[in-house]
Amino acid sequence: MPPVHPARAALAARLRAAGSVFAEDEADLLLEAGDGDPVKLRGLVQRRLAGEPLEVVLGWAGFDGHRVRVAPGVFVPRTRTVVVVEQAARRLQRYDRVVDLCCGVGAISVALLGRVGALDLVAADIDPDAVDVAAENIGDRGIVVLGDLFAPLPDRFRGTVDVIAVNAPYVPSEAVETMPSEAREHERRIALDGGPDGLDVHRRVAAGAGEWVRPGGAVVIEVSAAQAPESVAAFAEAGFAVSVETDDTVDGTCVVAELPA
Q1: pTM over the 0.85 mark
Q2: Are 248 and 82 in contact (CB under 8 A)?
């Protein structure tokens, strides 16, 4: 085994002392981002030690094999959301019509494009900063629109969407203050707070999705395992056939709601 570079070992020790669970991995990524410039590296390390999320410090997050750009204040994609990508991708073929709702930085869109290929894709979010970043990540492979849930979608999508993939906020309001500081202090509350029981946005998606999904199409929406029964009930009440899907490898849970053909 080759010897560990002294700079890496020292940086990992500092990160470990600051509470990093993956200090060695973080050290490698920060050294890569520093690109041999000690002044740049020092600035990155200081930001990380001050509590900024590693992804924001680096300027990117890893998601389903891709590096997607992130920015301060914008929701950082979590690995568990890969369960949404998996369930959406298995229901799609090239050139199908897809909506990435509450898209954040567009991580689900990037992953679906990577897994399925070209899609007729629209991503939407209410946060203008997230929309700007998503537009950069998606590029000319889709359209990114600003607005509240279905409001900004093009009318040609009405009743014709094959899959709506959603990572809506689902943290109960009172629980936001108990989240890790990296989320609580560095991501906007609108991307985290799902209302009193966490499912306000789920209910709104369930109530409106039937107008946009084609018969036989589906909504795939992330949720916690504990909240899944209530989310299922909301989509069932709206006329969908509903199941709960999990992926233990990423600790992810989603509700899949299919509109009867």
Answers
A1: yes
A2: no
